[in-house]
């Protein structure tokens, strides 16, 4: 099973031929700029399409604290995304309270564990929308 740095490396080397399809769902690579270091960090994340946008969840497995990649994009929402061989710049934003129920449903259909992660924490797990920048 691919995960973490090895997942990123194999995904990048194969344009997603290895790593895009993972555990019966789909994975993209999200690159954020470190809010303290300014260095790029790339994270493999489960995603789904919603219209022209890509949607990811800042779950961290139900941890009480947000994942580092989410903290980074809150500080700088200009990110890079790779879906298979398609690499593009995007603007990240947290879904609004009005759109979150629909997007949460979309994501839990592809990864039902998100509901369990939410039950494990008092933190409101954010759903993030990645909008391609043209």
UniProtKB/TrEMBL annotation:
GO terms for cellular component: plasma membrane. It catalyses: oxidized coenzyme F420-(gamma-L-Glu)(n) + a quinol + H(+) = reduced coenzyme F420-(gamma-L-Glu)(n) + a quinone. SUPFAM superfamilies: FMN-binding split barrel. One of its GO terms (molecular function) is oxidoreductase activity. Pfam families: F420H2_quin_red (PF04075). Belongs to the F420H(2)-dependent quinone reductase family. This is Deazaflavin-dependent oxidoreductase (Nitroreductase family). It comes from Nonomuraea polychroma.
């Amino acid at each position: 099973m691919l995960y973490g740095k090895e997942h990123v490396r194999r995904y990048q080397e194969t344009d997603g031929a290895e790593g895009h399809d993972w555990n019966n769902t789909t994975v993209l690579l999200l690159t954020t700029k470190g809010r303290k270091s300014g260095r790029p960090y790339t994270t493999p994340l489960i995603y789904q399409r919603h219209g022209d946008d890509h949607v990811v969840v800042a779950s961290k497995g139900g941890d009480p604290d947000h994942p580092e990649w989410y903290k980074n994009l809150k500080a700088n929402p200009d990110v890079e995304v790779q879906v298979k061989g398609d690499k593009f710049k995007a603007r990240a934003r947290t879904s609004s309270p009005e759109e979150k129920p629909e997007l949460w449903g979309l994501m839990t259909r592809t990864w039902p564990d998100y509901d369990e992660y939410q039950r494990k924490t008092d933190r409101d797990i954010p759903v993030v929308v990645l909008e391609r920048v043209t």
